[in-house]
# Entry
Amino acid sequence: MEFREVLKKRSMCRNFDGRKVEREKLELLVYAASRAPQGGNEPVREYILVDDARYVKMLRAVSPSFLANAKATIVICTDLKKAEETMGKQGRDILSLLDAGAAAENIALMAVELGLGVSFVRSSTDEAVKSILGIPARYRIDIIIGIGYKSRNRPPPIKGFPPKVHHNMYGVGWETSN
Amino acid sequence: MEDKKTLFDVAIYLISSARDCLDEPAIYGPLRLLEGVNRVIEVSNSNPSLEDKFLNSMQKKISETVLEVMRDRNKFKDALNDLLLEFAEEMKKRTITSA
# Structure
């Protein structure tokens, strides 16, 4: 698939069918995430693959924005202690979060190639998520990604909007060539 | 096959939502409440003694209304008004019939 086609097809899915996501596909999604940058080239970002239906159900219960009935999830988290030691406060609070976002997008793009759908989830219920998955206190939950096969009955993707682009200076419009 | 939904599932969802609402945009509050209603209906669908045909028939509409908040907030408000009207009419029907 052409990369532009992948970009075009990338969307959030809010209704999955009952098929289980194969282990190999979950591993490929993590591979895609691992290709995202990590500030300072320090391994502070970690992934929890959740494919046990009981745990997915519990994550959904404590994550109100987890509206979709995903069959698996990938939780991206950052070791804040290690991030601060190696990259300082900026690395801990900003760079690692930007990098986690890039990793999540890589997962969303790889999902297109694998014929899967994803749904990004971010809630303020980190303590509950940590308790359920046994994540140590020094970690920050960056994003939870619901994964599954798209249902035929899913609602149509929400339409995006054209990017707001400035040319050389803020306020000077960029005229697109296509 | 989906597992049986319980009142506990709804309770923990509502508690999580209450916490989340402190940090989320205000417009997400109604969305969380609607999703809560959806989950109550899931419980009634899982338990024959709680089955309610009207609630069951409204589930699709509620799910569609939840998604509307992401698309068009004015339409979301209209959809909520419509939903409320349908529930009010149903309540009236039930109250008058049972009186």
Chain B touches chain A at residues 1-3, 9, 12-13, 16-17, 19-20, 22-24, 28, 32, 35, 64, 66-67, 70-71 (CB under 8 Å). Chain B has four helices and no strands. The radius of gyration of chain B is 15 Å. Residues 21 and 28 of chain B are 7 Å apart (CA to CA).
